[in-house]
Write a structure and sequence with these properties.
This protein is α/β, with parallel strands linked by helices. Helices cover about 35% and strands about 25% of the residues. The protein has two domains: about 160 residues, Rossmann fold (3-Layer(aba) Sandwich); about 70 residues, no CATH class. Strands 6-7-8-3-9-10 form a six-stranded mixed sheet, sandwiched between helices. It has a four-stranded antiparallel sheet with strand order 2-1-4-5, covered by helices on one side. About 40% of the residues are buried.
Length: about 250
Amino acid sequence: MKLQLWHSRPPTRGTGDLVVDGVDLFYSRVQALRDLSLTVHEGEIVAILGNNGAGKSTTLNMLSGIVRPRLGTVRWGEVDLTKEAPWRIVGRGLVQVPEGRRIFSTMTVHENLQLGGYLEPSREAVEERINSVYELMPRLAERRDQQGGTMSGGEQQMLAIGRALVASPALLTLDEPSMGLAPLIVAQVMETIREVNARGTTVLLVEQNARAALKIADRAYVLESGAVAISGPATELAADPRVIDAYLGD
C-alpha cells in the first residue's frame, strides 16, 4: 500500500517569475522587512547581499512560508504564495537550503538524500533524482554510506544542496552556502550552484560573501535594515563604489 502524502490534490508546480511586492514583516514589534520588493526572473541566478541583520534570511524564510508578512504579497507566476503552507510551497517547487546545512548527522548520505524526496510518492522517482545528484556531485556518491556528521563542512554543504535537489526544485533558495568554508571549497560550491542553474533551476542566493555571489549571479539586491538599498546587474554592482567599500574591499 502506498503512503498518501498529500492532504488534498498536489499543488500546481510554480512557473514564471517570483515577485515580492511591498512586503512588511515583523517579529513581534520589531520590523524585519520594510516595503521589500524584488523580482527573480525564471532561469536567473539572483543574489541578496547585506550585513548581519539586514533581513536576508528573513526574506528566504518568508518565501518558504515559515514567517508571514504583515503587508504585501509574494507571487510566483499566477500563484499567490503569501499565505501558503510551507509544505505546499515545497510541493510547488520552491525549495530552501537553510543556513548551517542542517543535515541529519547520524544518517548516511543516501538516507539524507532520500529525505529530500519525502513529498514524492514514487520511490523509483526519488532514486532517479538521487542518482542525478550523485552524477552532479561525485563526492557524495563516494560517501553514500557514510554518516553525514562525519563529513567535512564542504561535503555537508554539498549534501544539503543535494537533498534540496531531490525535491526537484524549480526555484532553489540558498542561505549563506559559503559560511565557514575555505576559499577553494567556496569556489566549488559556487560552481555547483552555477551548474544547477544551467540545468534549468532558477536560483535565489543569500550571501555575505559578495565577491563569490556576484561572480555567478545575473542580478543582485543589497539589503539594509530590511529594505532594498541597491539593486542591478551583478556586473554593475561589482563595480559600484558603494558595494566595493561595504562588501568587496580593494
